[in-house]
Description:
2 copies of one chain form a homodimer.
Chain A lengths: L4 E15 L4 E11 L9 E5 L1 E6 L4 H13 L5 E8 L8 H10 L6 E10 L13 E4 L10 H15 L16 H12 L5 H10 L3 E7 L9 E5 L1 H7 L9
Parallel strand pairs in A: 1-6
Antiparallel strand pairs in A: 1-2, 1-4, 2-3, 2-7, 5-6, 8-9
Chain A binds a DNA duplex (27 and 27 nucleotides) through helix 5.
Amino acid sequence: MKAEIIPNISVDCVIFGFDNTTKSLNVLLIERYLKLKDSEIPAVNDYVLRGFHTLDNETIDETANRVLKELTGLDHLYKKQFKVFGDPNRLMNEKDIIWAQHEHFNQRTITIAYYILLPTDVIQIEVNQYKPKWFPVNQLPELGFDHRKIINEAYADLKEKVLYKPIVFELLADKFTIKDLQDAYEAILGVEIDNRNFRRKLITKKYIIALDEKQVGVSKKPSQLYMFSKDVYQKIYKESYLISI
Amino acid sequence: MKAEIIPNISVDCVIFGFDNTTKSLNVLLIERYLKLKDSEIPAVNDYVLRGFHTLDNETIDETANRVLKELTGLDHLYKKQFKVFGDPNRLMNEKDIIWAQHEHFNQRTITIAYYILLPTDVIQIEVNQYKPKWFPVNQLPELGFDHRKIINEAYADLKEKVLYKPIVFELLADKFTIKDLQDAYEAILGVEIDNRNFRRKLITKKYIIALDEKQVGVSKKPSQLYMFSKDVYQKIYKESYLISI
DNA sequence: CCAAAAGTGTTAAGTCTACACCCATGA
DNA sequence: TCATGGGTGTAGACTTAACACTTTTGG
């Protein structure tokens, strides 16, 4: 029995990648391109998030995993289901309608949106059949459907969560420097952070563990590498009820 | 053109009410009862959350509003869409199957879950046709479908959010005492809070405003009433980036 | 020896924790 | 005048913010 597509339920993934070199928080997008035969200029030519319709025998998380596997080749990425976009008119601008006719989907679809965190360099986008491209979250191209809204809401959620959950680490390699951490926070929050205070604060944390290793291949003083211990973190933060409204 | 039900998409609402008298965080549930003609004992007799299927011309939020209007008579309650429950086998235990046959819904349904915050005493449950009942969140009755799971996840989300967002106030009347606030936090978090430190901390906040009013009708020293100013809160917290992981 | 980024210290202000008694009121 | 819960103060530990220079390294 082959699994059937559920036509009105989809999953869209906002893949955030932190680029350590440019210190930029990026979003992975694929092109949406359509040229009708009677026209010179393309009828649709913009970017969208990758998404799939859910199959009738899979969970929502599994749908998200399929999207991720296809686009990144990876399993087990950090992913957060953050909101449903279900406005009846969400796919109703001109290009979306042209596209929907061409792709033969028509009825109202609600989409369950996830965001995903990873360091950009763990995936090789060149070899992917969908030709995905990274765009800085603050310089997005023209976007199809309601995907600009989805990305903006994902980003807002990320900005909030990053302040009180240890999710920055998902944007970095397993071994990172304190500067990397700071760069990631600065890129996400769009603020400058005092380097001395930041180091002091973070190095004191028990779950940020100095390794017996330094950076290699840099033409300057190589910096100390650290790792994040989820286990230690969870032990410490089992119950800490600091009300900080 | 009459709006049609979307058969595979529903909205379920976890209505949390804080009862100031018993100092208990409660959940509003309705009974699910079914007696088949050939049997003495009811085939189904448990409690569930109230939910509706989404109509094809309404947003998800509007579906949630319909649920709330019906169950509480109120609009404009604080509501948070927190998670989608879409496991293909989520309605597959014995009673759920009997119930589904009886109610003529069968196919896989995904439900978009909200939680709602209000003070229990703003609604009169006795007059409602569905005979809803409050249950302390820590003493839930037997629950149908996957609603125990939904409630538990709603509660977990609430516990987390209450620490860094000003949502406790949604559980209290517009005018409240500092003790009320403390009781609400204690009920939600299941901890005891030092009264002196709590008062000091909260009274200092600019957005917690002392009124020219005291409690009336209490047979002891009447306490000072306060209100929460959302405006002041938002002005203060426009951008405060304290990383507290 | 130079360029580049890593790494470091101090002070003052503010916040958190722990702890126990007096006070104002209505009955 | 009493019972009840409202309301208060302090000291020590800790955390934060603001601020600029020295050190280490590879090339």
